[in-house]
Design goal:
Shape: globular
Distance between the termini: 66 Å
Strand content: 15-25%
Structural class: alpha+beta
Radius of gyration: 23 Å
Order of helices and strands: HEEEEEEE
Strand order of the largest sheet: 2-1-3-6
Number of helices: 1
Number of strands: 7
Largest sheet: 4 strands, antiparallel
């Protein structure tokens, strides 16, 4: 009788283990976003956002207009914001894309890449490049709003 009870108890525990699997070995850190889609609902319409971390974490700033030098002391992005973005979000309302550049100045020189309004966001810039071939991740120094046709097919996602 004791053996039968022990066998039934062992089988019940084994069945419970199969029905309730163990937790995943690695979980996302507390407060981490699954992707920029989690940041999208809270973003203000009419703005471009940049983040220092992937998946729209580490808020750098937002801009309704153009900023020709993220490293200066004026505009929406300033000082250490330059060359610090690893994800971006476009919640503009005009239908325009946001062109990001690895150069500064109102001549909008240097390489560029665009984020179309229909793309919403780029969660991880590490696999993107500017039109010049330079990497976009931690390489954005300025941005402006541009029509998709001005991007000549060079989009982030």
């Amino acid at each position: 009788m004791r053996k039968t009870f022990a066998v039934l108890a062992a089988l019940a525990l084994a069945g419970l283990g199969a029905a309730v699997p163990a937790a995943a070995a690695q979980a996302a850190p507390a407060g981490a976003l699954a992707d920029c889609g989690d940041a999208w609902p809270n973003a203000t319409s009419g703005y471009f956002y940049a983040y220092s971390g992937t998946y729209c974490s580490g808020y750098l700033g937002k801009a309704a207009g153009n900023d020709s030098d993220w490293g200066d002391s004026s505009g929406s992005f300033q000082g250490s914001d330059t060359n610090s973005a690893s994800s971006v979000l476009n919640k503009g309302t005009s239908g325009m894309a946001v062109a990001v550049y690895n150069g500064t100045g109102t001549d909008w020189g240097g390489g560029y890449a665009c984020l179309a309004r229909s793309e919403y966001y780029a969660s991880n810039l590490s696999d993107d490049s500017f039109s010049s071939g330079a990497g976009v991740n931690n390489g954005i120094s300025s941005h402006r709003w541009a029509w998709n046709s001005e991007c000549y097919g060079h989009f982030l996602t």
